[in-house]
Amino acid sequence: MANPRQTREALGARLRELRKDASLNGKQLAQTLHWQATKVSRIELGKQTPSEDDIRAWLGACGAADQQSSLIAQLRGLELAYAAWQRQLRTGTRDRQRQIATIEAEADLIRGFEPATVPGLFQTREYARHIMAQSIAIHDIVDDLEDGLQARMERQEILYKPGHRFHFVLTEAAVRNLLCPPEILMGQIERLIASATLPNVALGVIPFTARLPKSPVHGFWIYGTGLVTVETFAAELSLTQPEEIAVYAKIFGLMKDVALYGKAARALMTSVLDDLAATHFPEGDPTELS
To answer: Does 2 have pLDDT greater than 70?
Structure first.
């Protein structure tokens, strides 16, 4: 995956090609735009990020105004591309949850692939408590756990609002990973089984026995047709270029094709429940434990 430097260099290379297509050298373009010549070279080499006004002026001088939408989108993608969690979460988890809710509210279709955890839209409060507590501890941020949990629960109201559809694919590992006590994971799996019955939700689970079309190196969410978000340990990437979105849509389709749905998915998740009960609570019902 391209990092911000590579993305900036790619933008500069596109601008350089347009300059050459217009039969202008760097000095001529700079004179036309009343810039210093070094600004042209720094932008083309990816050492300086142009502003939107810079791009509009550049395209106007090169007679390439038809490229404006694409290049502005590429610039905005660069500006959003790498947002460190330390910065994203500087005001706490509640504000971050509300930011996500705003993005979700604007999307009529949300698709997601999660190889390791249950998606936030389907998390129980107690499962979410453990996931969010881990994030707070690792990133050493403001501990607003209860407020963050409440905001995450409020996000889930979108599942019941008209005009929104959801399609998620999980790996079997996502429902087996013990990121919380086993009894909480069992409650989480039961919630997933129930959520899969919602008319606007499609939930697929890829069993360990499936032949994977692509290594599941990370999860991602696709919002409508205009945004993909990818979480890493240190940051969140926001991708807006059509070609990038197309790659993730293709991977989502490949993963969807090997997932189980409906009765088969419920049977797999029920077998995980049985395994958890047999392994961790061989003598009784976990809900009866004090």
So the answer is: no
